[in-house]
Amino acid sequence: MKIGMAGSAMMTSNWKDALQTAINLGYDAFEISCEYPQADPDHIPKAEREKGKETAEKAGIAIALHAPFNSLNFATFNQGIRKESVRQTIEAVNFCADLGGKTVVTHNGEYLIDPDWGGQAEQGLGLQYDLNIDSLKRVAEAAEKRGVILCLENCNFVRAKVEQTLADLVKIKDEVKSPNLKFTLDIGHSRLAEGVESAIKILGKDIRHIHFTDNFGKKDDHLVIGEGNFDYSSFVDFILGFRHIVTLEVVVLDTSPEPARKSLENFKRIIGGGS
Description:
This protein is of the alpha/beta class and 275 residues long. It has helices at residues 15-25, 46-59, 79-98, 121-146, 166-176, 187-191, 196-203, 236-240, 258-271; strands spanning 2-6, 29-33, 62-66, 103-106, 149-153, 181-186, 207-212, 245-248.
């Protein structure tokens, strides 16, 4: 297991400063957030990427990246927005690869049609589902070329998401048919949907990245680890045996390293309770 710091833990910091914080705090990995103001791959020149790769390699810290998702939608009928959603995600794949990283987290698109509308809703949902698959195929192809694993995050607690169940996620992966499409297991999202144990059972062999979060079981709080009421005991052993990056996904709109420091300290205490 590699313990990763989420760039979102100090969201208003530049990615280079956040990376250095992760190194200073003793994290094994760092997940860059490709959202403003942390990182915009369109405006990160080659020299800056090379310097970032050099810094990461010298420190022995693994790089992961969360692709942008705000205002983007792989499944939208608006083809300009869909094209831009694909383009920005591919740019995130390229940015990750340029830094020597192997893991990019992305989300499925969202339905614009409510299934409760009746009438032709089912046909519209089917069209959007197909658009989502096509978008993922394009990004997965780019990931294959760059040697990056594209990790589809479970967001089925969101009503409008293309995946409404864990089974939907597996179906989507099977239809994309890319060896480079795997899953990010977000345990906070799982708590709000079908449960962490079910997610581990259904997605298990294809989980390549974990978002370890904390909340109060009502909404996706992304609290400092240990400040919610999450009971991790039933799957601590799974976390301990995980061979890839476990990112402590905290979201704080600040530049302070304290949330990342406290999360790492509390996480080590929590997993110390494994058998």
